[in-house]
């Protein structure tokens, strides 16, 4: 299990992660109008594979895409049912990658 390195109170951020031994560029954006985070996943060459995944709790965010690299989940560490916000992401809510079995 691996927590994606997203930072609170930074509404647009780009970072690189290694998932299932493959490097990916991720772009996280806070959607002010809708009040939630979105995530783009691109390969190391910048080719976007998945765009604008809504970072909502409750299911594997990658499952609908047949990406076959594992699972990506929003986890509320307070166990109060809260969603990721601009100020709590990376603190009370984590984006967690789980390797494939």
Content of β-strand: over 45%
Domain count, please report it: 1
Unreliable spans are: none
Q: Span between N and C termini? A: 11 Å
**SSE order, one letter for each helix or strand:** EEEEEEE
Radius of gyration: 13 Å
Tally of extended strands? 7
What does the main sheet amount to?
Answer: 4 strands, antiparallel
Strand order, main sheet: write it out: 2-3-4-5
Rough shape?
globular
- The averaged pLDDT comes out at 94
Number of helices: 0
Helix content: under 10%
Structural class call reads mainly beta
Main attributes?
0% helix; single chain; 101 residues; mainly beta; 3-stranded antiparallel sheet; globular; 4-stranded antiparallel sheet
Walk me through this protein's architecture.
With 101 residues, the chain is mostly beta strands. It has one domain. Helix content is 0%, strand content 46%. It is built from no helices and 7 strands. The protein is globular, with a radius of gyration of 13 Å.
Helix-strand layout with pairing:
Layout: E1 2-3, E2 12-19, E3 22-31, E4 36-42, E5 48-54, E6 71-76, E7 93-98
Antiparallel strand pairs: 1-7, 2-3, 3-4, 4-5, 6-7
Give a quick rundown of the structure:
The protein is mainly β.
């Amino acid at each position: 299990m691996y927590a994606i390195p997203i930072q609170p109170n930074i509404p647009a951020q780009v970072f690189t992660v290694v998932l299932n031994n493959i490097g990916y560029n991720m772009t996280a954006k806070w959607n002010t109008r809708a009040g939630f985070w979105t995530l783009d996943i691109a390969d190391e060459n910048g080719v976007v594979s998945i765009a604008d995944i809504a970072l909502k709790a409750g299911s594997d965010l990658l499952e609908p895409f047949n990406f076959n690299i594992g699972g990506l989940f929003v986890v509320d560490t307070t166990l109060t049912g809260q969603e990721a916000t601009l100020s709590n992401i990376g603190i009370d809510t984590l984006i967690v990658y789980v390797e494939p079995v």
